[in-house]
Design goal:
homodimer; mainly alpha; Arc Repressor Mutant, subunit A; Tetracycline Repressor, domain 2; 2 domains; DNA-binding
Chain lengths: 187, 187
DNA sequence: CCCAAAAGCTAATGGCATTAGCCTTCCCAC
DNA sequence: GTGGGAAGGCTAATGCCATTAGCTTTTGGG
C-alpha cells in the first residue's frame, strides 16, 4: 500500500455504471467493481453499504442522468413540440445506453434515496404538459400515459425485444403522434 | 431413499413458478426449488440444465399461460371489442400474478426455446387486428404499438411503479381508447 | 509533529451453482 | 419372474461471491 486508491462513493458508482454499460446489470458485482477500481472487494464497503445499496445508487444515477438529458432538450420549447422533444430525448438516451436502462428504478417514488429524482422527472413531465391546461387528475392520467409509452417502448427496444429492427423509428413516431392526438382531442 | 421423489421437468417448473409468485424472480434459486420439491440441489440437474435454463423454462411457461388467457378472452369477439378484451385480459393476468410478470421474456423471438410461444402471441395480436384491414408494415406497427402499451402499463403496475394506485383503471381505459381511436383514425 | 479517523487489506464464514462419481430404483426385454 | 441398464437421487468437492471482523497504514487537521 504505497498510496491509497483514493476512491469515493461517486467513483465507485462511476465504475459500476461502466460495468453495467459494457456487460449488463447482471454483471454488476462487487468483485468486478473492485477489480475495475484496483481495490480488494471488502474495501468497497467503505463507500457503499452493500451490493443492494450500490444497485440503488446506480439506479439513482441513471434516473438523474436521464432526467437531466430530457430537461435540457425540453427547455425553450412548448406544446406539442416540447412533448415530442421529451419523448424523443428519452428514447435517444436509452438507445445510447441500452444496458443501463435495466438498472433504472421502476418505482423510484417508493425508495427514500430515489424519491427526489423520481419526483423531479414527474415534475418535468407535468411542466411539459402545462400548456395543455389539464386539471387535477387529468394531468396525472396524461403523465401516466406518457410514461407508459416511453417506458414500454424503451424497455422493449433496449432489450432487443422487437423482432426486427426495421421501421422502429416509424413505430415510435406513430406512438408520439397517437399520444398527442389523444391529448388534443380531450383537452 | 425409500422411494423416489418422482420429479419431472414440469414439476420443477411448477415449483419454480410458485416460488416466483410468492417471493419474486430474484428468489428463484436452485437451492430454494430443491427445498420446495424435497430433493437435494444437484438432483435438479436431472431435469433442468442449469439455473439459466430453469429461468428460460419459467419464462416460457408464463408467456404460454398469458397467451392462453388472452386467446380465451378474444375468441368470439371482433373489432374494437376484441382489442379491448385482449388488452384487458393481458392486464388482468399480470395483476393476478404481479411477481411472475418479471420472469416473462422480453425478447422471446431471439430464444430458440421461446420463439414459438412469442410467435403465437404475435399472431394472436395480428388476428385480433385483422378486421382493421391493415396492410404490410401497418399491421406490424399496430402490433408493436399495442405491445408497447400493454407491456409498458403492466410492467409498471406489476412493480408498484405508479406512485398512487388511485385511478389506474381509468388510466388504462384511456390508453385503450387512445389506441383504438388511433387505429380507426388511420385505417 | 501527533493522533484519530478514514481507507485499505487479509482472513474467515456462509450461500449458491455446478461437476464428478456413486448408489438405488424402476421397468422392459427376455 | 428376473436381470440389467437407464434414469433419478445422493454426497462430496470446487469455486465464486457477499459480507463481517479485526488489523495496518495513510492522511489531514490541530
Amino acid at each position: 500500500m504505497a498510496v491509497r486508491a483514493g476512491l469515493t462513493t461517486t467513483k465507485v458508482v462511476d465504475a459500476a455504471l461502466e460495468l453495467v454499460d459494457e456487460q449488463g446489470v447482471e454483471a454488476l458485482t462487487l468483485a468486478a467493481v473492485a477489480a475495475r477500481t484496483g481495490v480488494a472487494t471488502p474495501s468497497l464497503y467503505k463507500h457503499v453499504a452493500s451490493l443492494g445499496d450500490l444497485r440503488d445508487l446506480v439506479g439513482l444515477r441513471v434516473l438523474e442522468d436521464l432526467t437531466a438529458r430530457c430537461t435540457e432538450t425540453v427547455v425553450g420549447r412548448s406544446g406539442d413540440e416540447a412533448v415530442r422533444a421529451l419523448m424523443h430525448a428519452f428514447r435517444a438516451y436509452v438507445q445510447e445506453h441500452p444496458k443501463r436502462y435495466a438498472a433504472a428504478p421502476m418505482d423510484p417514488l417508493h425508495d427514500e434515496l430515489q424519491r427526489a429524482a423520481g419526483l423531479k422527472f414527474m415534475e418535468l413531465v407535468l411542466a411539459t404538459l402545462r400548456s395543455y391546461g389539464l386539471e387535477g387528475s387529468d394531468a396525472v392520467h396524461a403523465t401516466r400515459r406518457l410514461r407508459v409509452i416511453v417506458h414500454g417502448f424503451a424497455s422493449i427496444e433496449a432489450s432487443g425485444g422487437f423482432g426486427l429492427p426495421e421501421g422502429l423509428d416509424d413505430t415510435y413516431d406513430q406512438l408520439v403522434r397517437m399520444y398527442l392526438d389523444d391529448l388534443r382531442g380531450k383537452s
